[in-house]
Amino acid sequence: MLKKLLGSILICLFLSIGCNQEEPVTRVDLSKKEQLGRKEEANLITYAYLPQYSHTVSYHRHHMLVEYLRKETGLNIRQVFPETFNKHMEMVGLGKVDISYSNPFVYVKIANRYNARAFVRVVESYGRENFRGQIICRADNRLINQISDCRGKRWIAVSPYSGGGYLYPLGHFITHGLKRTDFSVVDFAPGPGALQEKVVLAVYAGKYDIGTIREGTLNLVADRIDIKKIRVIANTSWYPGWVYAARADMEPEIVEKIKKAFLKLDYNQNDHKLILETADIIGIISSEDQDFDPVRELIAHVGISLQE
Amino acid sequence: MKLKFHSRIYLGIFFPLLLLGVVNFFMVTMIMKDALLEENRNRGISIGINLAARVTEPVLAMDFFRMKALVDKTIGLSDDIYYTFVLDTKGEPLVHTFQDGFPVDLKAVNIVSDNQDYNIRVLDTGSELIYDYAFPVIIDNDLLGTVRLGLLRTKVQEAINRVMLSAFLSTGMVIFFAGFVGTVLARPITGRIKILHESSEQVMRGKLDSKTSPVLKKNCWEIMNCGKLGCPAYGNVNHRCWYIAGTLCPNCTEGEYAQKIWSCKNCQVYHKCSGDEIQSLAESFDSMILSLKTHLSELQNAEKTLKEQRQLLRTILDSTPDFVSLQDLQSVYQAVNISFCAIVGKREEDIIGKADFDLFFEDMAEKNLRENLEIIKTGKPLKNQEEIPTSEGKKWFHVVKIPVHDPDGNVIGILWSGRDITEFKEIQTRLVLFQKMESIGQLAAGVAHEINTPLGIIMGYAQLLLEEVPQGGEAYDGLKTIERQSKICRRIVADLLRFSRHTESTESITTSLDVNQSIEEVVSVVEHTYKLDRVEIEKDYYPNLPTFRGDKEKIRQVFVNLLNNAFYAIGTDGTIRIKTSFDNENDEIVISVADTGIGIPLEKIDRIFAPFYTTKPVGEGTGLGLSITFGILQEHGGRIEVESPPSSVWDIEGKDAKGTVFIIHLPFSKDREIKEEIIDGQNISIR
């Protein structure tokens, strides 16, 4: 009886181990190898969003719009993701970006450098074609209550090429008597990508006293930090909003085709509305290069060279 | 064969531990294996998901440098990561970690759809087993590519093997340790139990001197420092004092173990000397042996005494000629003596346990049963004279049956004893016969005495008349007939007188006579007559036979009677053998007269000496011959015996035993008082 019991236990144990054997095995031959080699796609039109946010955010916001353009125009349009503002501008110059979606400051630069030409610009989600920058600090920072309190403080800006995140606030400081040299530290958010968010997080973390961002950024980080602990010290003046520009040597027919597709977007149509809201805009309007002269004037006002 | 105790202890420790160890080993191995595989799987998933998340932006940016850096960094995380690579949406590799080209087979071997978090396949490269993980690179539900991660199964298997080895070694160590501990614990117990077992075997073999309890370092007299040399516990190193009766310790209660143990338990000696259960068992075992030895000795003495008493009682019972038996209430024999065995004709062991129906005839058994039931019922003893059939024939017994009572007065059995009175009965019968003969003798003597005188007158007058009457006449013949018949009557009267011991004797009984000569005188008279009928007389006289003092005529009459009877028994053609001898031992002259006649029937042999008993026809005998012979010999202090047919010692000339032999024993030197009496003018000696 005891032997049978012991035998049964051992058999069950072995069976249980046997039952626990591995899943099916697939035989592969690792000896057959190939070398990597990517083929460039023909007739590819690249679409780049100035990397003020992470690539993921950029993709999220614009992949539906790109898809719309592909369908609407029949063109092989694909979104590409330059790592930095500077890289974005360089890629425009190198012809690697056919359609640049950038802030007015960068547009003025690529227009100046590479003859890029604006053909449409966006209507921001708050219903205006213009946008502005914001100067923020920690809500509990009792030393900074007004612009003048920013003197001698540590300032982190989005990028030297950022409109709302640097150029507009700098113009605002200068207007209020503060020069760049009046700050103890002026740093820019480290790349690549998510530069606006990094500014908010740096101020939130207390690494910097003040930060400058474009309006609307705080909502993007609301799921990561308590934005009530961030206080907006001042908003800058309004300037023209983001703009689509085509590289200089892009065929005008294609530009026109794309422009028509952009202008065709109607916020009142549900499918277009989804595309537009995903891109954090509510409409796209026609634009020309002279729409951005106020920006050129501001650049001149703050003393920035377009050739830098 | 049953297992020994220490083997059972070892098995009791080893087997559960082995079973537990085996189960534990397999369970731990399985769990650890599953855990390791799961952990490995989770690790792979974690690495893969992390890589897929981190590679999203480089994939979007087509930043091959960052992608390459990420996959290289990933493969450097652990040496069991065999490869990592990123595929684009078309399944073409973007970056990988292979040194010399990308293995083509890996592209499509593990496809993950965009609705899966990951997919795992086991790949066999021929030399390695690889867990291949595929993770989708997704953003906004759009599949940007696939991250693949290869983890070596071999490394996991090595970890599993290490775990199995560790589990096996730890289980083995635990079993070994438990076995060692079990051995250390079991050995003293089994050793002491073995000593107990050997001691008990010695006790069973009758050796009551075994000592099983250990010798203590300090004994009671040393602890108490009492110095009481007279105490039975003093100096007794083999037995604890609480087992010994009669100790002199002031704290001890008197009595044996049962009485004193309660007081002893409060004593410091008990606390210091008492051990564990085994020691207590050994000590109590020793004490028990000691007690057993004492009781056994007492028992042996009692048994010896009992045996002696029983033997004495047995001797008494067997020595008595009376038969004795004891029956229980069911009449089953519980005890018998030798005499009873002789009566029944069986051995004692064949009688004990049997009932009357097994030993006696049915009538006898029923009678006994009825008597027993009556005695049991009434409680009264029974006395009786019974004729009981025995192995030697029927015998008369004076029987006593007595009820046997227990201490409460209840009848528990019946004692049946009996005394053989057969001889007494025979003597009683003879006494009656003698009384009868004496009465007849007195009557005959009276009649003869009265007839003798007128008979003498008749015969006298007849002789006178014969002288006066001339011969030849009728009257003469008539007187002659009267005279002749008167003489016959006179002879009959003389016989009657001799029979009644009142006859006259011609010689004094004090005459010294030669028996051989007396026989020869009688033989010479009858020999011629016997020869006419071809009856030979053989004589075998003992030479120098001592003389015998007695009445010669009466002795001669004895021989005449015996020879006449022998001749009559033979009829014709036979032999009469007469032999004389002397019995030195009894100082007796022995005369035998044997014949080859018809013999005496067994049923008549007891009656031949009775007066007037005869087998002869009417007119040929009076039936007084042997009666007179018997009486004459009694007068002379002798006796007569008869055997028919004679035993071999009397066999005549080798013939078959037949006929009859009469043996006469005459005392030779016995002093006898002789009284002489003269009856009717003749001397008759009567003792």
Brief characterization of the structure:
With 308 residues, chain A is α/β, with parallel strands linked by helices. In chain A, 38% of the residues lie in helices and 22% in strands.
How would you characterize this protein structure?
The complex is a heterodimer of chains A (308) and B (687). With 308 residues, chain A is an alpha/beta fold. Chain A has 10 helices and 15 strands. Chain A has helices at 2-19, 55-73, 85-94, 104-114, 163-175, 195-204, 217-220, 252-264, 270-278, 293-302; strands at 25-27, 33-34, 44-49, 76-80, 99-102, 117-124, 130-131, 133-138, 154-157, 185-188, 210-214, 230-235, 239-240, 243-246, 281-286. Chain A has a 6-stranded mixed β-sheet with strand order 4-3-5-14-6-15. Chain A has a 5-stranded mixed β-sheet with strand order 10-9-11-8-12. In chain A, strands 7-13 form a two-stranded antiparallel ribbon. In chain A, helix 2 (55-73) packs across helix 8, helix 3 (85-94) packs parallel to helix 4 and helix 5 packs across helix 10. The mean pLDDT of chain A is 88. With 687 residues, chain B is of the alpha+beta class. In chain B, the strands form 5 sheets. A 5-stranded antiparallel β-sheet of chain B has the order 2-1-6-5-4. In chain B, strands 8-7-11-10-9 form a 5-stranded antiparallel β-sheet, with helices on both faces. Residues 502-508, 651-655 and 670-687 of chain B have low confidence and may be disordered. Chain A binds chain B through residues 6, 9-10, 13-14, 16-17, 20, 22-36, 38, 54-56, 58-60, 63, 79-83, 192-193, and chain B through 19, 22-23, 26-27, 29-30, 33-34, 56-57, 60-63, 92-96, 98, 100-106, 109-110, 120-126, 129, 139-140, 142, 153. Strand 1 (25-27) of chain A pairs parallel with strand 4 of chain B.
Total strand segments of chain B: 20
The proportion of residues forming helix of chain B, as a percent range, comes to 40-55%
The chain-level structural class of chain A is: alpha/beta
According to DSSP, the number of beta strands of chain A is 15
Task: Report strand order across the widest sheet of chain B.
Answer: 2-1-6-5-4
What structural class should be given to the helix and strand makeup of chain B?
alpha+beta
CATH class of the largest domain in chain B: Alpha Beta
Please compute the radius of gyration of chain A using only Cα atoms.
Answer: 26 Å
Count structural domains of chain B. 5
| Helical content band of chain A | 25-40%
Which fold name is given in CATH as the topology of the largest domain in chain A?
Answer: D-Maltodextrin-Binding Protein, domain 2
| Tally of individual helices of chain B | 18
